[in-house]
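Tutorial handout. Part one gives the primary structure; part two gives the three-dimensional structure as C-alpha cells.
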Amino acid sequence: MPDSTPTIGRANIVTAQNGRQQRISEGRPFPLGATWDGLGVNFALFSANATKVELCIFNATGENELERITMPEYTDEVFHVYLPDARPGTVYGYRVHGPYDPANGHRFNPNKLLLDPYAKGTVGELKWDPSHFGYVMESGDDLTFDERDSAPFTPKCRVVDPAFTWGNDRPPNIPWGETIFYETHVKGFTRLHPAVPEPLRGTYAGLGQKEVVDYIKALGVTSVELLPVHGFVQDQHLTDKGLTNYWGYNTISFFAPELRYSATGSLSEFKEMVARLHANDLEVILDVVYNHTAEGNERGPTLSFKGIDNASYYRLIPDQKRYYINETGTGNTVNLSHPRVLQMVTDSLRYWVQEMHVDGFRFDLATILGREPYGFDEGGGFLDSCRQDPILSSVKLIAEPWDIGPGGYQVGGFPPGWAEWNDKFRDTVREYWKGNEGKLPDLATRLTASGDAFNKRGRRPWSSVNFVTAHDGFCLHDLVSYNEKHNEANGEDNRDGHSDNQSWNCGAEGPTEDPEINALRERQKRNFIATLMLSQGTPLLLAGDELSRSQSGNNNTYCQDNELNWIDWANIPEDGQSLIEFTRKVIALRKALPILRRGRFLTGRHNEELDVLDVDWISPNGQPMHPEQWNDPSAKCLGMLLDGRARATGIHRPAMDTSALLVLNAHHDVVSFTLPEVAGGAAWHCLLDTNHPTGVEVETFRMGDTYLVTGRSTLLFTLELDQGESIALRQATQALQELQETPFEPPSQE
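Part two.
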C-alpha cells in the first residue's frame, strides 16, 4: 500500500467507470470532509465497517453524475483521496459498499447516494422517492434490499472556499449576567417585513438588513437565538399533506447552512448577517439538533449516516441491532459514545464558532448529548469535551435539559459552565398568573433563579434560562386568549401539541370585542413580560410576543410555513405597538438596575455587619412573610425586597445599587399593599405598574404609605436613600426618558 500521507504532487491517472480520466493521489485522512487547500481538494470519510467507498462527482447543478472514483486509501477507519484538479464549487456525493445485514446493524447500499456528514455546502433539495430507502419501501420489510439509484432525487454536497473578509468583526462577548435572549426564525422574522427588499425577505440577508437589526437593537435584547439553520429535510408525511417542516428540527447536514434561507446560495450571506448583528453588539446563538437525524428508524430513508456506517452513528438496541434506541421520539438517537461521532459533533460546533463566528448554541433535547449506554452522565464524553475545549468552553452553551428516555428530565443536572432552559419557571409563572392557589412558595423560588435546581457547584443565577413562551407552545397573545389548543390546521385532528398549557382566556375563547376582557389580556401580557425581565436569571423572549402576534390558538406550529408563523410587521395592532414600548421599558429597567441581575443566588442570606437580608419577602401589610402566610393557599400577593446594601460581595456601595421592591398581585381584585420601611431609605419611587403601562412620570411615596395594587398587576419600586443619590436610580430614570424620546415606529416600505 502506498504512503497514506503523500505529497500533493504525487498523483496518478485513474479512469472512471464512464471513461473519463481524473488525476488523483492518496490524500490524507484528515481533516474529514472535502477540504480545498488552494491547489486541490482532499476528500476524507469515516466508516469503521464499510468495505469500499466511491466518490461521485456531478455537474454544477447536481443533475448528472460525471465520475465515480474509488477512494484508494483507508487509514484509521477513514477513506481518503486527493483530487488536484478539483476546485470550490465541485459537486459530489458518496456511495458506500459493505454488508447489508440489518440484524447486525449494517445497512450499506451503494445504490444510494449519500451526503457527506462534513459537507460545508449543499446543492438541491430532497425529492421524496422510494429509491431513498435502502430496502424495498413498498414491501414494508427493511430486511429486503433495494437496487434503485437514489441520486436523481437526492441533494448533493458542494466543495466550498471558506475565505471571507471579516474586517473588524469581533464577538460581542455579552456577559452572562447582562444577556437577554430573543428567539426567532430566520424566515418568519422578515418574510413580511415591508422595509426588506422582496428578494431578501425570509433570508439570512433579510435578517441582516439595517431596519431589522435596528429594531432588535432598540428593543434592548442582546442575543438573537435562531431556530435551526443546519441543513434539514422536509418530512415526507408533511409534504404529502401540503405542509412544511417550518421549525427545521430534522437535521441532515451539521456543517452546511440551510439553503432555503439563502437569497444568494453563497456561504458568505450567512457570515454577512452575523457580521451585521455583531456590528450592533448583538450575539448570534444557534438552536442545534445533534440528538437525532432525518433518517428515522429502521424503516426510514438512507440519506447519509445510515448508509455510511449505521452501527457507528446510531444507538442500536444491543441484542436487537436491527432496531434503534429512540430516546428522542424521532426514530433514532445519535451515538455520541462513539469517538468519531463525538468528533463530528464537536468539529461541527468549532466550525460554526471559528468559521461562521456564532456566539453560542442552544442544544435541542440536550439530555441525549449527555447519555452514555448506562444513562445520563454529566461527566459523559460530550459534556466533558465541551468543558475542556478552549473554543467551545468560551461560548454560550445552553441545554434543553430533557428527552423522553429513562431519567430524561435533567433540569439543574448539567455541569458548571452550562445554562439550561428552565421549564419550572415557565410552568410556575403561568400557573401563578392564571390564578392557581398555593403558588407563592414556588413563585419565590422561580423569581430568584430557581436555586433549588441550580445553586450548587458554584453555578450562577444566569444558569437558569427563564422563559414563559417559546417556539414550542402558545405564543404570549394566545396564552391569555385560549383555554384550549386549536391545531386543526396541522392535519392531525387537533391531537398534536400539549394539552396542558396552563393558559387562561380571561373569559372568552379567542378573539372578542369585550373591552374588559381585552384590557385584562393586555395587562396579563405585561405581567408575564415584567415577571420574565425582573426575575433573577437569564430571560428569553419569543420574537413577536412583544407586538402581540397570534397563532390563532395553534400551540404546535412546526409545520406551518405561512402567515400563522410570519410576523406581520405592516399590520401591528395598536395594542401591539403599546406592548413593544412596554417591553422596551422593562428591558431598560433591567439593564439600569444591577440588583435585578445579581451574580449570586438570593437565599435570604443575612449580612450581619449591615443587619440586612439579600432578599426579603414582604406581605401586603408591609411586614416579612410568616409561615402561615406562605402556607395560605388563597394568598396571591407578594413583595420581593432586594436590599441594595446586601451586595453578594459584602461591599457596601448603596449609591451604586439601589434597593428594589417587586410586587406581584394575582388576585382578581385590588390589594392594599403597605410599602415597607427600609433602614437608610427616604422614599419609594414607582418605576413600573402594569396597570399604567404608558406612564413615564416616576411617582414618589413615603415608606409606610399604602399603594392600591390593581388586581392582576405587577409593580417595581426603587428606594431613594437618605444619605445621597442612587446612581442606579438615576440611570433608570434616564433610561425611561430616553425611551420616551425614541418611540417605536412601525416599518414602512421605502
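Part three, for discussion. The longest helix spans residues 515-534. The chain is about 20% helix and 20% strand.
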